[in-house]
Design brief:
The protein is an alpha/beta fold and about 600 residues long. The protein is about 45% helix and about 10% strand. InterPro entries: AB_hydrolase_1 (IPR000073), AB_hydrolase_fold (IPR029058), UCP031088_abhydr (IPR016969).
């Protein structure tokens, strides 16, 4: 393990001091000893296991009417936080400190990575970062962002419980399907951050197939609905340019059906009129015009179908299929309509406010730990909120604001094209990873390199790695990926408009930060973590690199769930947070 501390503005080149040891040292540098009653207990597998096996409260949200947690939730309690102006209910997994744990003054919030749920922080009683932290006295909460884990869209408690149970069952079903070598996308889906079968196949194949039988009235109604939605900009989900792109795609697909036929010229006349109407604001006159043009379009196709020419065979069926696929695309755009800034401005603040109300810290502040994207969110909060982020201290693991040195993540760059994002509104990452896992974990290990991105050799028990891969990942909106790709640019990660770089204001932060990196992390290399750490005031930041030249090594997830994390990583985090958790009176004792 390597500790790096920054001293002055010239530290970037020559004034960086490295120290290799198995102990932890933190800024500010002064002799500091915790009073005995506030010292963190030394890590112990036995004590951790006994903590995790104590009786668990059976709480589900705040309402006593709902008494059962979904089976996948291993926390002491499951709470739900409503998002303002939304039907999303964010899941918060809570872990209570045991009676014998040292008292703490601030609750602890854990934020997960891109497209992941709470399971990564609580894989098993013997490998649970959340249980370890609660065992050290921290009232620990894990936030599941919208679209991840047990966070669901529901208007009442009955719907909420039904949706949460369905998600839980699906997560467990995916693991069972892989164990039985059954295709995971065949499992019952369609809730929260998981794709239904039809949605999965729509994203996997962008082709025109044989659809349902011809129904003129139905097709007219469906075409009218599509063009009306586009004219309304999908109720605010699409910008004007995006609406133009997606309507052009549909008209292009229909045009291909009529290519090299006498119907082509007639269709082009309708196409031009439709395109002009879609540029205007919605009103009753335009709605009537859209319906009339949709009827004309269907009549053109129907007229061609009566021709004896082979080129018109199945045109109507293919049009039906095209319309059906297009409707699925529009639905997915609406279903997965959020980005990084939604997490930053809505999800995290709502969770923090809820936790403050439940725990009532005297200074109104929280401690926070973020892994991967969770740490990026904490950096962005410190950048945006300056000296008032309502955070007492922050730990980031495998997080940075500039990823230009990360080669594996550059596969996301093609999705930065807005047109591509509309073609593929969401990436079924969890489903794809589950499908690929057998090829990565079984001979001849065709996709063995996928495991190296997650965990270094011999750092995770195979069963825990399998559980992580099969149970921890969800579907990711392309809008979210698009914003994260700005981290490959010269300005680093930016807000959705591209005008604000989240690197710019970190030097004004007054929150202590511990930035942790793994020596074999290919997703967020140590260089990226170190460069972001340099942006903070030198007296408030500590950068720590885990891993030794001859082993053990730490990859992206090993900092959270590697077999040595409990011995090496967790105690350093506890020591850092304990230093800033103390009140002024406790520091004097």
């Amino acid at each position: 393990m390597t500790t790096l501390q920054f001293h002055s503005q010239s530290r970037f080149e020559s004034d960086i001091r490295f120290a290799s040891s198995t102990s932890c040292s933190f800024r500010p540098r002064r002799n500091f000893t915790l009073p005995r009653r506030f010292r963190p207990r030394p890590p112990s597998l036995h004590s951790h296991s006994s903590t995790s096996l104590r009786p668990l409260p059976r709480a589900f949200s705040n309402d006593p009417a709902v008494t059962e947690k979904p089976s996948i939730c291993t926390a002491d309690e499951l709470h739900y936080v409503p998002l303002p102006n939304s039907d999303w209910r964010l899941a918060l997994w809570r872990y209570h400190p045991p009676p014998q744990a040292p008292p703490r003054n601030h609750p602890l919030l854990l934020l997960s990575g891109l497209g992941t749920n709470a399971i990564g922080y609580d894989l098993s009683p013997e490998s649970s970062f959340a249980r370890y932290m609660s065992g050290q006295g921290f009232d620990t909460w894990i936030l599941e962002f919208r679209g991840a884990g047990l966070s669901v869209q529901a208007s009442n408690l009955k719907e909420l419980k039904q949706s949460a149970d369905a998600v839980s069952e699906q997560i467990e079903a995916i693991a069972k399907s892989v164990a039985n070598e059954v295709s995971p996308q065949k499992q019952p889906t369609g809730v929260s951050g998981y794709l239904s079968d039809s949605e999965f196949y729509f994203l996997r194949e962008d082709s025109i197939g044989i659809g349902t039988a011809w129904d003129e009235a139905k097709l007219v109604a469906e075409l009218t609905e599509i063009f009306m939605r586009l004219s309304e900009r999908l109720s605010g989900f699409l910008s004007e340019s995006q609406s133009r792109l997606i309507s052009t795609k549909l008209l292009d697909q229909i045009s291909k059906l009529l290519e090299d036929s006498q119907l082509s010229e007639r269709f082009e006349e309708v196409r031009i009129k439709l395109a002009n109407i879609l540029e205007k604001q919605q009103n009753s006159v335009i709605a009537s015009q859209i319906r009339d043009l949709s009827q004309r379009l269907v009549n053109i196709i129907e007229g061609g179908q009566r021709s004896v020419s082979p080129q018109f065979i199945d045109i109507q069926e293919r049009l039906s299929s095209t319309i059906e696929d297009f409707q699925k695309q529009l639905d997915l755009i609406v279903k997965y309509d959020w980005d990084f800034d939604h997490y930053l401005e809505e999800d995290v603040p709502a969770a923090m406010e809820y936790i403050r109300a439940q725990t009532k810290p005297k200074d109104g502040k929280l401690l926070a730990i973020g892994h991967s994207m969770g740490g990026i969110l904490l950096y962005a909060m410190l950048s945006r909120c300056g000296r008032e982020p309502r955070l007492k201290a922050v730990v980031t693991m495998a997080s940075a604001l500039d990823y230009r040195c990360s080669k594996p993540l550059k596969v996301l760059l093609p999705l930065a094209d807005p047109a591509q994002a509309l073609n593929v509104p969401a990436v079924p990452f969890g489903t794809l990873l589950a499908a690929a896992y057998p090829l990565a974990s079984r001979p001849p290990y065709v996709l063995g390199w996928l495991n190296d991105l997650i965990s270094a050799e011999d750092m995770m028990h195979p069963e825990l790695l399998e559980k992580l891969v099969l149970n921890n990942f969800c579907t990711i909106p392309t809008k979210l990926i698009m914003q994260l790709t700005s981290a490959f640019g010269d300005k680093g990660l930016c807000n959705r408009s591209g005008k604000l770089s989240y690197r710019d204001h970190l030097n004004k932060s007054n929150v202590p930060v511990l930035a942790i990196a793994g020596d074999q992390d290919l997703i967020c290399p140590p260089e990226a973590v170190g460069e972001t750490a340099k942006l903070f005031p030198e007296n408030l930041v500590t950068y720590k690199l885990f891993g030794e030249p001859h082993g053990p090594h730490y990859a992206h997830y090993d900092l959270v769930g590697g077999r040595l994390a409990m011995e090496q990583v967790y105690p350093c985090i506890v020591q850092f947070l304990s230093q800033y958790d103390l009140t002024s009176l406790q520091k004097l004792l």
